[in-house]
Design goal:
Number of helices: 4
Number of domains: 1
Mean pLDDT: 93
Shape: globular
CATH class: Alpha Beta
CATH architecture: Roll
Order of helices and strands: HHEHEHEEEEE
Strand content: 35-45%
Oligomer: single chain
Low-confidence stretches: none
Largest sheet: 7 strands, mixed
Number of strands: 7
Radius of gyration: 15 Å
């Protein structure tokens, strides 16, 4: 079955919007809360993904690892300050089975450094597995497959 009832489809769109807002606003507790405990979050080049190579630029394989990353962002990483802004396309639902929604969406992330113009930082697509939980929809898997071969400078914030 590839369809959702309207309430679940609206909840899915809200999940995508909440994700973008959490990352753009550096609300790391909210970002973490959008995932199940045994989640799989990866940022991977398209070439590696399409060839089946496991190497990812960033691989966080549990909610605990997401917490570690958030701690690192808040407490230990030093970098030139900048803002991120996500633009996410509408989710394309591929299938729904046993409380799991398999979906994907295109994304673009813009970066603005202080006193500089905004630039395109990263473009690609999200490949998601979303669980229906008592707390609402949560990401079990979010693979950020980016199109460019390289990420400019470094990857500080989640995509």
């Amino acid at each position: 079955m590839n369809t959702l009832d309207i309430d679940t489809f609206l909840a899915l769109n809200r999940l995508y919007a909440d994700y973008a807002a959490a990352v753009d606003n550096a609300d790391w507790d909210k970002w973490i809360d959008l995932f199940v405990d045994d989640c799989d979050y990866r940022v991977q080049p398209r070439e590696n993904h399409e060839r089946g190579f496991p190497l990812a630029t960033l691989a966080l394989l549990s909610k605990g690892m997401l917490r570690d990353r958030a701690y690192g962002i808040k407490e230990t990483l030093f970098h030139d300050p900048y803002y991120q802004r996500h633009v996410t396309g509408a989710p394309l639902v591929e299938r729904v089975e046993d409380g799991v929604i398999v979906a994907q969406a295109n994304y673009a992330v813009f970066r603005t450094k202080l006193s500089q113009e905004s630039t395109v930082f990263n473009v690609g697509r999200y490949l998601d597995r979303i669980h229906v939980t008592p707390q609402g929809l949560r990401f079990a898997q979010r693979h950020c497959i980016y199109d460019t071969e390289m990420i400019a400078n470094s990857l500080i914030y989640p995509i």
